Amino acid sequence: MSKQILIVEDELDLAQILAEYLQRDGFVTTTLADGLVAMAALRRAPPQLLLLDLMLPGMDGMSILRELRKTSDLPVIMMTARVEEIDRLLGLELGADDYICKPYSPREVVARVKTVLRRTQPAAGLAATPKVGGSVLEIDADALQARVAGKSLELTAKEFRLLQALASKPGRVFSRAQLLDAVYDDNLEVSERAIDSHLKNLRKKLALVFPDEEPIRSIYGVGFAFEP
Question: I want to staple 34 with a disulfide (CB 3.0 to 4.6 A). Which of 3, 58, 76, 142 is the partner?
């Protein structure tokens, strides 16, 4: 079945070009130009992926994303001409799966759509367990253990939760604040920089079993991603 893509973009010519390129690759598209109308459509019939402009009439893209993330993990790619770092950081903190700055190539957008769909919707029959350097990384949430070839990585509880959060969505960028929420669930007043210490220790332990790989990537000024 063809995947449904909702394009929310008030530049009608640009929206039409994106729709045509996506349709050529077999996607079914719907285009909307108003934020409030888009929010109603998302509640009524969610697509497989949302291409969301930042500046919209009725309701801006950031407000749509904030409202959407209260109840849904729908893949979202933000599109905007605002390239300031704070916009990029805020979009990712709210849960955007990717971020494309204008002007962009429609072919690039199609490629990003395919990449986000691959990592957020694994194909049937494929193991959801991530692989690093050809080796399966097994994450046992019940036992709070991560294993490679049956051998435990000997992680602390916080290191395990950190790895579990990152590996749950390979390729997705997590901010320090998001990782802090995943690691500390007791509402303690903890500095976001505490994540750096846990990441340093986690990377050392991963390096023992994956000496030629570096699966946790730092994105300067934004956060971290697990990229096996």
Answer: 58
- With left for phi above 0 and alpha for psi between -120 and 50, is residue 219 left, alpha or beta? beta
- 3-state SS track over 7-24: EECCCHHHHHHHHHHHHH
The distance of Cα 226 from the centroid of its chain, to the nearest Å, equals 10
Least confident piece of the model among 24-28, 62-66, 70-74, 131-135: 131-135
Asked whether 99 and 77 are in contact (CB, 8 A), the reply is: yes
CB neighbour class for 6 (10 Å; exposed up to 12, middle 13-18, buried from 19): buried
Nearest residue to 25 via CA among 102, 100, 111: 111
pTM over cut 0.85: no
Which residues partner with 31 through β-bridges?
A: 7
